[in-house]
Amino acid sequence: MLQRAREQGGGSIALKGLVFLMFAMFAMTTDSVGTVIPEVIHEFNLGLTAGGSFQYATMSGIGVAAIALGFLADRIGRKITILVGLCLFGFGSALFAAGHAFPLFVVLLFVSGLGIGIFKAGALALIGDLSRSTHEHARTMNLVEGFFGVGAIVGPAVVTFAVNHGASWKWVYFVAAMLCFLLVVSSALFKFPAPIVNRDVPARPSEALRLAGDPAAVFFGAALMLYVGAEAAIYVWTPTYFAAYRGPWPLLAAYAVSIFFLLRAFGRFLGVWLLSRWNWSTVLAISSSAVALLFWAAVLGGRPVAVFALPATGLFMSVLYPTINSTGISCHDKGRHGSIAGLLLFLTCVSAVAAPLLMGTIGDGFGDIAYSIVVGAVLAALLAGLCLWNAVQAPFAGRLAARNLDDYGAPGVA
């Protein structure tokens, strides 16, 4: 029995490491898009809208796969789902080597996005299988997203290094494809835990849509959409906002987004420590309130204050996404983790596309990009209100306790 427990513990660590690398790998491509788009616009003589297709194609692929195929993790198993998604992502990334046409690149990004949506739903469900409580689930997700943050830093660095040395921006996709190949081999060789399934009817394609009316799905889905919208104000519009900065901190303004990503990555590792000491609802309430205060300080103080306040939001935003996402998933039985993960991922993709468009439209309408930051501040305030209400009312405490009792046992290897 002791030997079996040790083997399971070792397998759990190895599988978590596999998930960490998956998130770091795809973050290299998704979060380097802001660095890639200017190169693509220059190479193909495109406008801003056409160049932005690199963002929309990937997010569309992720969203379609998440809502339509997230159930696969519950129906055919985590391992096969992850392998299918990784193969699609690797295929789409590797073909960048053979492509020279902009429309082809957009199609490949959509295919890669489909792969991300599939294997991410499987990976999120797998994290639930490897967790022994809803609280551990939240801590592990912060660690997973910490590695995503590392990938978000490495990806733009690869693009910048390649371009500065006369190489192609496509190198970031080559590197991701090579890492993906290693992950496919490792995933095929590893043993995955058998999830605890408390249901008689197999998951169906409509599973995610049927979960959309669940109170927990509504709450956590809304929270994620507000978070992603506020975050978009930073990494999409902050560079444009600070283009007009003329204060004494020009380097801080120039590297505002990089500082934001660094603080976000560090904060997610810090989040693991915070969640080991405080209740998740308390951590969300404090962190979301800090984000809202920093946003409004930036709005009221203008660029001289925003140059400090906006990058600093990364430290407090860091813990929000993984904690909201993991707790939203934990509210459902493990037989539905792939489906609910797909639904929540779909909603984040919708917000990732809609929020920047809304901010850009409002900024254009008022003739000042500063109004995009105001929209971000409003979304941050709404999120803080939602998290404070949750901390006071604790509407899902009983449900999470029931899930701890029914679902979160020590997983067996199958």
Describe the secondary structure blueprint for this structure.
Blueprint: H1 2-30, H2 33-44, H3 48-51, H4 53-69, H5 72-75, H6 78-94, H7 102-130, H8 134-164, H9 171-189, E1 193-194, H10 207-211, H11 215-235, H12 238-241, H13 250-254, H14 256-275, H15 280-301, H16 303-317, H17 320-330, H18 337-366, H19 370-393, H20 397-406, E2 412-413
Antiparallel strand pairs: 1-2
Question: What would your notes on this structure say?
Answer:
The chain has 414 residues and is mainly α. Helices cover 79% and strands 1% of the residues. It is built from 20 helices and 2 strands. The chain has helices at 2-30, 33-44, 48-51, 53-69, 72-75, 78-94, 102-130, 134-164, 171-189, 207-211, 215-235, 238-241, 250-254, 256-275, 280-301, 303-317, 320-330, 337-366, 370-393, 397-406, and strands at 193-194, 412-413. Strands 1-2 form a two-stranded antiparallel sheet. Helix 11 (215-235) packs antiparallel against helix 19 (370-393) and helix 18 (337-366) runs antiparallel to helix 19. It is globular. The two termini are 16 Å apart.
